[in-house]
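Quick one: structure tokens for this chain, please?
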Amino acid sequence: MSRRSKILSGALVTSALLLTSLGLSGVAASSTPSAAVVHTGHTGHTMALSTASSPEDPDGDGYIPADPPVTGVTPSTQNPPHRYFHEFQANCAVSHTRPDDPIVYPQQPGKSHDHTFMGNTTTNAGSTTATLSAGGTTCKAPGDLSGYWMPTLYNGDKPVLPVGPQVIYYKAGVTDYTSVRPFPKGLRFVVGSPVQSADEFRHHPGFVEGWECGDSFFNTEFPATCPARPDVQLNIRFQTPSCWDGRYLDTPDHKSHMAYPVVKPGTNDNVCPADHPVALPMIEFKMAFPVNGDMSKVRLASGPGHSFHYDFFNAWDDRTLKALVDHCVVGGLQCDARGYDETHPEAGAALGADYRLP
């Protein structure tokens, strides 16, 4: 089979798997994918099929193998000494907006709904692990060259962008926080879906508090109004899966290589499932949007409030990420972006005053 044929076949396979993952398996993949558009039923949003593969996908089938893979891992069921916190922050500001998505629509500029990008300043449709690693960052730690993005929020036709460094937690999602290891370079995945239903959003395992402002919280849609005060913003918190299969940096649906922890039977302990045994940090977006008062015209580029989702593409400097994970997550601390826990000053910091490795 020619390289051209393999790429086309891979694109069709990817499209079919993506439809299945989004609950749209009844929509047939076109033999001419460039013309295929999935109508989701959500007002103002459609989702086109991807027609290209990442340069990091060796045969265009949607799978990007880890090199080397992580094998021989059994999910940890150990119960280390209790520590209430095991986390650090990556404080990253908005860098730009663009209708690109290098995970879902690689090499296809303008094909996505508009996204708000944080972290890496170069993220676009053509981004790869190599280009991100050569880019700049809006994160406090210069070693965090990862790309983080979410659908742009609008009030009417005006974009509403988070102001200043946003809080992105890296924490243990499993009870044995000492088993958490750093992300492999180049790992990427999507959390949630632009075509999920309100019920799917509310019951998503990553759902924390939904949309909130003032005293209103656990909302799947935007509140009708928020207190019109300078100190009130629209907020959302949402967590990622944190268990990895050890085999792939990406899969055709951009989700299957990752899984959420499960409860060990007969206990309250969270463990990784057997088919995703590698414990990684659980990312939690804690985003604040400067909008309040009348919220009737607030929407996402992807549709209504319940279409919220986000993407992560790991391009951390390996040594910097390992230092933070080992010191803060494995060490059971509540750290800032320097890897410093002010309640345990004796532990010191993972990074220097300039947020770089000492």
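The first helix runs from residue 3 to 21.
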